[in-house]
Amino acid sequence: MLLRHTTDKIIEREALTINPAKTCQPVGAMYAALGIHGCLPHSHGSQGCCSYHRSALTRHYKEPVMAATSSFTEGTSVFGGQANLLQAIETIFTVYNPDVIAVHTTCLSETIGDDVNQICQKARTEGYVPEGKFVIHCNTPSYVGSHVTGYANMVTSMVKHFATVSTTPKNQINLVAGWCEPSDMREMKRISTQMGIKTVMFPDTSDVLDTPLTGKHEFYPSGGVTIPELVSTGDSKFTLALGSYSSEDAATLLETKCKVKFSVLDLPIGLQATDKYVMALSRASKMPVPDSITADRGRLVDMIADMHQYLYNKRVALFGDPDTLVPLTEFLLSMDMKPVYIVSGTPGKKFETAMTNLLLKKVPEAKFKNGQRADMFLLHQWIKQEPVDLLIGNSYGKYIARDENIPLVRVGFPILDRIGHSHFPIVGYQGGMGLIIKILNAILDKEDRECAEEKVELTM
Amino acid sequence: MGKIEIDPLRWKEEVLKKYPKKVAKKRDKGILVHDGEMPKQIMANVRSIPGIITARGCTYAGCKGVVLGPTRDIINLVHGPIGCSFYAWLTRRNQTLPPTPESENFMNYCFSTDMQDSNIVFGGELKLKQAVREVFEIFKPKSIGIFSTCPVGLIGDDVHAVAREMKEELGINIFGFSCEGYKGVSQSAGHHIANNTLMKHVIGRNDTAPEGKYKINMLGEYNIGGDAFELERIFEKCGLTLVSSFSGNSTIEQFERAHTADLNVIMCHRSINYVAEMMETKFGIPWFKVNFIGADASAKSLRRIAEYFEDAELMARVEEVIAEEMAIVKEAIETVYPRTTGKVAMLFVGGSRAHHYQELFSELGMSTLSAGYEFGHRDDYEGRRVIPTIQVDADSRNIEVLTIEADETRYRPRKTDEEIAALNAKGCGFGEYDGMMADMAKGALIIDDISHYEMEKLIEIYHPDIFCAGIKEKYCVQKMGIPLKQLHSYDYGGPYAGFEGAVNFYNDIDMMINTSIWKMIKAPWQVEPVIEAEYGV
């Protein structure tokens, strides 16, 4: 057994995390920053942080992930990171020539109290930042929140640094993308385009982390929200924040700063969340929903109806990030599946409220927990107490899946051992169909492999 | 092809032009062209330039990830925010094989104190102690290692005091590592800290020697992709007893009796030479450098081990094994060689792999045009003879150097000075390592701590047939149409050590160099004349 020391006996823990369902802030900030066109993320801390984050993102995307570091040493930790950051800014603009450097902090620079705002200001006034170029920053102390918090903080800093009100309002809708894949961002944009709506999505990692092989390494790939687009978000008609944990702060700041009204939705994962997304787009833009979208929806409903018998009452354990887990749970419920165990290392009351609302009536026996020590060890112990039919989460789930012989559907971050997540969406009606196909394949492949020979079915 | 004819000195000049003046001045000393004679002085193990895009990681990564990561019966508890433990969770693919289904194996678990802001403000020692108690209650391990991350050192949490207190309370071996990420300039400092801690708290605790006539320790082998399994197979076949391996497929129990071996052989010099030196002083165990990367190199290393034991039976057995293994290797190389010979490789990785793997490439008839380490020191490039001349800077000075003395009861010189001298005359090379440059051809570009920019320029100008580095470089290089072989993770292949490993490597390199898709990058309409629009208006 891979996790041979895990038993069903739960011992209350107050200090120890085992097999976390989260990581720390900076990787989220790095990922978000890659969604700005021509941006080089910069990690203000020890080299290891940058190296680990680049490695994790690279393994997840199988794509180049460029980022730089302030390379703190012991001396830097004593005297402060200003000299390192200034040198980094000079070196980066000279050698790599980005449009923007997006600086995020680490537990190290936060603990010693580096004032990154002041250092970036100094860089500007002292000529380290060439004309027409930008340095933006956000604080991402690793000991607060999770990787999702870091993502949200970098997205908020995009608004802080760029969003501006001009004299001419723009007939466009802002889409603040919560943490999802480039494929999901592409699909959410496709739906709005299908409705004939002009949108600005930020961040936008499509065409950044899913690039073609051309024989040339494009250091700054064609995708990403551009600076003029980010500036223009202050003139937009409305903002849709998709995923409250990762996008609400940015939308709130945009309203405060530029008076752009917003509503917060879930990421459009599954039937109902996509319904809400389409309705919100339609309301905000006053554009009708085209028949082609209604047909897409109908195909998803058709698939759920046809496949219902294979999904009904199946017990599911999930782990990952709240913005994904909430609509995913809702989707599973819409197919009459039973999400019985759910954990997320990301803290915050909203998760509990949302899960209570979803599960209280339909699956009263469901156990869910988020924040500190809501980890995969606990999830595994719950599974040991009473098994499930399906596990949904990132690649670390495979160790539980193998030990307990549960089919695993990979959704979340990081996915290190399979591909497809960056290319095929799980959002929208089509994404929902993709997700059902994955779930069915996982369940039925196991059934076909393990059922008695006389029970093998040719047809579903 | 003519692609190698660009003068490397001119390449260097062009590359340095891009940098700000101060940066260029520093990089100038880290890049040199080997003249094929005595290795010239290179600047290594110095700070990376902020913003330059280095491949290096941190001290914690070298300590927890590299040296202690592959040991299965210890609980490695990371004291810090969640990320440090999360990123070191199973990502180095050290394989391990517990002897029974019940044997301890904590390697698939990730343990952390998940420090929160209140712990940063008020201190994290109480939480750490509680976490140690909880991990003990749940898992009942025999040893716990506590690893410090950046904030721990800054807020003054004393992991060593906590370890001592908990050791007392729980009655098991518990020890701390001051391996904060900011110490040193790379992973290398972490290796040293890990070596020191193993020496202080683990090695020498159990005097029960395993049975066997020829007892050795294998140092600096981490069982990536099963390398250690292959070496264990070979050693067993030869009749050698492996007392302990630092640290591929290892246990703390093995470390505790490592001092009962009669010879230490070192694979990765950079990460573990400290333990070898300290064990020689403390226990009288001599060491020499070996290389099991490459079939010929493996054969040579085995012969030296046999030579050391001065036993005709062992020597004969080793020759038999080599003959048997080489027959299979020869067959493999004959198939692959015509497709690989003449090709060009570049290697930028680690603290020894960029040297060792040149062996395998040369067996394939491939030349290494350029190479360098990520975290090597001058001795890894120029040979250990330069150690006395290496300047100790502030970043190295803060890494503890243990004062080791001969153990009162356990010190037992395995060979007399005369015997050592005689064996040296036969080529055993005790305590020696000549470094990477001694094995490189005239005109080779040696680049320490290569930057992303330098890497792109190397590829752009020299178009190697294969580039070897790590995950962060993998897809940048492949976007340029050049296959990249990961030499940290082996691209999830391997083993590459020993004889079967060499065969795997030959086949994998053949596969990569001759991948069909590299020839299909351009669409037909990008290479053929443009088709006129007929339906267009």
Topology:
The complex is a heterodimer of chains A (460) and B (537).
Chain A: E1 17-18, H1 25-33, E2 39-44, H2 47-61, E3 68-69, H3 74-79, H4 82-95, E4 100-105, H5 107-111, H6 116-125, E5 134-138, H7 147-162, E6 173-177, H8 182-194, E7 199-202, H9 227-232, E8 238-242, H10 244-258, E9 262-265, H11 271-285, H12 291-311, E10 315-319, H13 322-334, E11 338-344, H14 349-359, E12 367-370, H15 376-385, E13 390-393, H16 397-404, E14 408-410, H17 428-450
Parallel strand pairs in A: 2-3, 2-4, 4-5, 6-7, 6-8, 8-9, 10-11, 10-13, 11-12, 13-14
Helix pairs in contact in A: 1-2, 1-7, 4-6, 7-10, 12-17, 13-14
Chain B: H1 8-17, H2 21-30, E1 31-33, H3 59-68, E2 74-79, H4 82-87, E3 111-112, H5 117-122, H6 125-139, E4 143-148, H7 150-155, H8 159-170, E5 173-177, H9 187-201, E6 214-221, H10 227-238, E7 240-247, H11 252-256, E8 263-266, H12 269-283, E9 287-289, H13 295-309, H14 312-340, E10 344-348, H15 353-363, E11 367-372, H16 378-382, H17 394-397, H18 417-425, E12 445-447, H19 452-462, E13 466-469, H20 471-479, E14 484-486, H21 498-513, H22 524-527
Parallel strand pairs in B: 2-3, 2-4, 4-5, 6-7, 6-8, 8-9, 10-11, 10-13, 11-12, 13-14
Antiparallel strand pairs in B: 1-12
Helix pairs in contact in B: 3-9, 6-8, 9-12, 10-21, 13-14, 14-21
